[in-house]
Amino acid sequence: MPILELKNIHKSFGKTKVLKGIDLTLEKGQVMSIIGSSGSGKTTLLRCVNFLEIADKGEVLVDGKTIFRAGEKFSAKEMRERQLHFGLVFQDFNLFPQYTVLDNVMLAPKLLAKDDYKGDRQKKKDILDNIRKNALDILDRVGLSDKIDNYPCELSGGQKQRVSIARALALSPEILFFDEPTSALDPELTGEILKVIRKLASENTTMVIVTHEIDFAEAVSDKIIFMADGVIEEEGTPNEVLKQPKSERTRAFLTKLSDK
User: Fold this and answer.
1) Hey, what long-range contacts does 21-27 have (CB within 8 A, 24 or more apart)?
2) How far apart are CA 252 and CA 215, in angstroms?
3) C-alpha–C-alpha distance, residues 29 and 27, integer Å
């Protein structure tokens, strides 16, 4: 059973149709990259899956359970619960500048845990100790155990992005999404994030990566989707899509990138 399944996802902004019926599946432990020209619908698709946008039509299933069906009403609390299936790493980091690295990673779990220890000091201490230990373990996984007391302004771009990854992992999401994780980085720092994502992949972390970096996508992906004009034009292994594309639009896209 796929860990993630999208069925007939549509999204329009006014009269502009951005997603025109997206169907895809993702297996547990897979890394999927979504490539395509700007305006092809990649980021909108990611935002619809994470409920940052609400799809006009279609369904989202996680582990075979429907967590979204267009037209159904749900409360803000239900929305937050559904979003917890996913972790999202933004291209521009979105760290809180007033908090240290460790505090940035601990913040969301602490806020979620408030209802679990109301008025119980010992339970509060135990829960916060566990949150801190988990945050320290995750920061070690992404190679930042020596930066826990630093503030975002004291970090390089690659280090900030690794904090963003750690923060997303702190809530133990079933699927980790990346929106252009290397686009805000200097080329020499791209390899730094690639190394972290490869490590996560080796740990069986399920990931979806929206990216313009074709070499990056080829290096980390089990599956690549090429989107064009709001539809999935082609999908397959990196070798199938990038080396032996069947679609003329895919070939034209890759040729244009090569020319650049």
Assistant:
1) 21/58, 21/231, 22/58, 22/230, 22/231, 22/232, 23/232, 24/225, 24/232, 24/235, 26/2, 26/175, 26/206, 26/208, 26/223, 27/2, 27/3, 27/206
2) 17
3) 6
Q: How many percent of the chain have pLDDT more than 70? A: 98
**What span, in angstroms and rounded, lies between the C-alpha atoms of 48 and 30?**
20
* Interatomic CA distance for residues 10 and 6, integer angstroms: 10
The per-residue pLDDT for range 181-216, each reduced to its tens digit, is 877 677 777 778 888 888 898 899 999 999 988 888
Q: What is d(CA 32, CA 210) in angstroms, rounded to the nearest whole number?
A: 9
pLDDT digits (tens, 9 = 90+) for 85-123: 999 998 778 899 999 999 999 999 998 888 777 777 888
3-state secondary structure (DSSP) of residue 19: strand
Grouping H, G, I as helix, E, B as strand and the rest as coil, residue 31 is strand
Q: What is residue 260's predicted lDDT score, i.e. its pLDDT? A: 62
- What does pLDDT average to over the chain? 92
Assess contact for 211 and 217: CB atoms under 8 A: yes
Contacts of 253 (CB under 8 A, 6+ apart): 35, 36, 37, 226, 228
pLDDT at 173: 95
Structure confidence at residue 139 (pLDDT): 96
**Which of these, 5, 20, 71, lies nearest to 232 by C-alpha position?**
20
Report the length, in residues, of the chain: 260
Write down the pTM of the prediction: 0.90
Strands of the sheet containing 57-62, edge to edge, are 16-26, 4-13, 57-62, 65-69
